[in-house]
Amino acid sequence: MRESYAKELKGKKLVLNDNIPRIAKRVELALADIGIEFHKTRPTRLLLTKMSNDVKAVLSEETAIQFEKLFEGINARFQKIDERGGTNLMPKTK
Description:
0% strand; 4 helices; single chain
């Protein structure tokens, strides 16, 4: 995030409020405190650009494995839903 706002942050101190649970909201408020408008597309665009140029510089092997496991779990859940012939994404409660 800091890199995507480097020009605006030059010479300014960004203070994040750790009591705010949502990171994007923390950043938005910290930037607003120093007079900068937050656009979440800026850090996102920078991340995607870096990933397209050199994914290993952005994601560690461990992180890539964790994402793979996450998507395997999501796909397994969708497979179960499909097998039931339903569209309910939430598990049935007992």
